């Protein structure tokens, strides 16, 4: 299935983690699941609540803004099929606290020396790499509000 621009098919880097369609990346949000029993919100499209074990969950779009709850700086290139820039550059990896009531692990774009706990962040959705069948793989990160 081609998208509206006639380009390659687009898929989320992890099934269910982004809202669809993926045609207009500026409108794509993280997707979560909210338990109708206990209210727990988790990242992605899930069928079981990790808090109460309930199975009555609804998918919801998550906020595109959050705060950096804590982070680390990855200074060594991960092994395997790491697809970041070459040569490798250190990058921030953070837990982003969303107002929806969950924290999401995410790459944090920008200068690693500018990262601060509590800084406001905005979701960035972009094509990350080309998959094995020529599809565009869409991934997310957070970056400082500009
Ligand atoms: Zn629950």
TrEMBL record:
Residues 29-58 form the ChsH2 rubredoxin-like zinc ribbon domain. Residues 61-123 form the ChsH2 C-terminal OB-fold domain. Pfam families: OB_ChsH2_C (PF01796), zf-ChsH2 (PF12172). It comes from the Bacteria. This is Nucleotide-binding protein. The lineage of its organism: Bacteria, Pseudomonadati, Pseudomonadota, Alphaproteobacteria, Hyphomicrobiales.
């Amino acid at each position: 299935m081609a998208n509206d621009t006639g380009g390659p098919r687009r898929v989320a880097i992890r099934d269910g983690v982004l809202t669809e369609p993926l045609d207009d990346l500026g409108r794509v949000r993280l997707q979560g699941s909210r338990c109708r029993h206990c209210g727990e919100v988790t990242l992605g499209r899930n069928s079981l609540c990790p808090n109460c074990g309930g199975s009555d969950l609804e998918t919801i779009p998550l906020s595109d803004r959050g705060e950096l709850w804590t982070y680390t700086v990855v200074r060594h290139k991960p092994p395997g099929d790491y697809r970041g820039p070459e040569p490798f550059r250190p990058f921030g990896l953070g837990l982003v606290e969303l107002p929806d009531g969950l924290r999401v692990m995410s790459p944090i774009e920008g200068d690693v020396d500018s990262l601060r706990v509590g800084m406001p962040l905005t979701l960035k959705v972009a094509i990350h790499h080309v998959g094995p069948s020529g599809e565009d793989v869409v991934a997310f990160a957070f970056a400082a509000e500009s």
